[in-house]
TrEMBL record:
It comes from the Bacteria. Coiled coil: none annotated. Residues 22-165 form the Creatinase N-terminal domain. Residues 173-387 form the Peptidase M24 domain. InterPro entries: Creatin/AminoP/Spt16_N, Creatinase/aminopeptidase-like, Creatinase_N, Pept_M24, Peptidase_M24B. This is Xaa-Pro peptidase family protein.
Length: 408
């Protein structure tokens, strides 16, 4: 089938019907909580509910949903045609010329106040994900409650709780994203040599993986961002890996370097996550000891995930194993994992203080790490989906040491 003849159902993205069902869930939630209108400012939350993906800037965008089922939006003029191309039909809208005013003499949130007035929401119960637009790219603005001169119930959980359990369509997109994250990692691993430049190998593999993705998927692939590539891989090396989020360093790969990698795909706006610990040349006894400990801890994390347990209970299993069986609790720097989907990190978290109940359809990273100061970090991360009885890995790259040795 030629790209020109592809129907929207063939494209790798969430369809209009699912976006409509998401908004209907919000309408019911508003009615149950006796909330008259909800203002959604977070760009990812706007996209989740409307299908409108955009590049967030200093110009506020807000989606407004009302308990009686109306959909409206605050938009800068420069995004109007973009919203019309992607988003649902609106019952009302407020367009402003520019930020901070574009000659209108009015802050954009005053246009939102006018919109809420037309919707009959002023003076009634209004909620929002956050109390006003986030401060990015030089934006300055008042809280929504100050503009409206009334309380606003601000709660990110109103939308983010709905995002925790993924639909079949979301899981399919993330499964495809995992496939391309795995592919990017393979290209990168196969390109690493002693003397390789860390940055050049990382970016070269990402570009080649993206070329492969576009060649295979063609018009089925629908980009959802202005920045970044659909398939990505990177690594850091040596003692820098002892920092869980160490930055890139200039220089070349050397014999004996420990490598901690990261790779992911993005399909339909949904991400994957894959990380591996590798070694350049033959691993010595010290490396093998920590690698085996990390691998065992990750397996405990896999085994801990099943419906009905809490995130804290799963994390407790991992931390208990690292403390009591490995005697390495002092090498832990972070929790075992996190949810994700449209964002690289999403609620909930596999953390001792997150008591969210695990449900089928949730997607997590599982990535307990051990960090040995001035030596190296040891961390695998895999994308998993919760099933009715446990979990299933979506990232399929080998976890075993024999497959993660780079020839010296």
């Amino acid at each position: 089938m030629s790209d020109a003849l592809l129907s929207k159902t063939d494209r790798l993205e969430i369809g209009a019907d699912e976006y409509r069902l998401r908004r209907e869930r919000v309408f019911r939630l508003l009615a149950e909580r006796e909330i008259d209108a909800l203002c959604v400012f977070g760009p990812t939350r706007v996209a989740y509910l409307s299908g409108f993906f955009f590049s967030p800037t200093e110009r506020p965008v807000a989606l407004v949903l009302t308990a009686d089922g109306r959909v409206a939006a605050l938009l800068p003029n420069l995004e109007l045609s973009h919203f019309q191309q992607q988003g649902p039909k609106l019952d009302d809208s407020a367009m402003y010329p520019e930020y901070p005013g574009g000659g209108s003499g009015r802050h954009p949130l005053l246009f939102l106040r006018d919109l809420l007035s037309r919707l009959g929401a002023l003076g009634k119960k209004i909620a929002a994900d956050v109390d006003g637009y986030e401060h990015r790219w030089g934006y300055r603005g008042p809280a929504l409650s100050a503009v409206l001169e009334q309380p606003v119930h601000a709660d990110v959980a109103l939308i983010d709780d709905l995002r925790m359990v993924k639909s079949a369509a979301e899981i399919a997109l993330m499964t495809e994203a995992c496939r391309w994250g795995d592919h990017a990692h393979r290209l990168m691993q196969d390109s690493i040599r002693v003397g390789s430049e860390e940055l050049l190998i990382s970016h070269g593999a990402s570009l080649q993986a993206t070329r492969d993705l576009l060649a295979e998927l063609g018009g089925r692939y629908v980009p959802k961002a202005r920045e970044g590539l659909p398939a990505n891989a990177m690594f850091i090396r040596g003692s820098n890996t002892a920092h869980p989020h160490g930055l890139h360093e200039a220089g070349a790969v050397a014999l004996g370097d420990v490598l901690v990698t990261g790779a992911y795909g993005v399909v339909g706006g949904y991400e994957s996550e894959l990380e591996r610990t590798m070694i350049v040349g033959e691993p010595d006894a010290e490396f093998q000891r920590y690698f085996a400990a990390m691998l065992a801890a990750q397996q405990v994390g896999f085994d801990a995930l099943r419906p009905g347990r809490t995130c804290a209970e799963a994390e407790s299993d991992v931390r208990r194993f690292i403390r009591d069986e490995l005697g390495m609790d002092d090498l832990v720097r972070h929790h075992t994992g996190h949810g994700f989907g449209l964002e690289g990190h999403e609620h909930p978290f596999l953390d001792l203080d997150d008591h969210t109940v695990i449900e089928p359809g949730m997607v997590f990273s599982v990535e307990p790490g051990l960090y040995v100061p001035e030596f190296a970090g040891f961390r695998h991360s895999d994308t998993v989906v919760i099933t009715v009885s446990g979990m299933e890995q979506l990232s399929l790259y080998s976890r075993e040491l024999d497959d993660l040795v780079v020839a010296g």
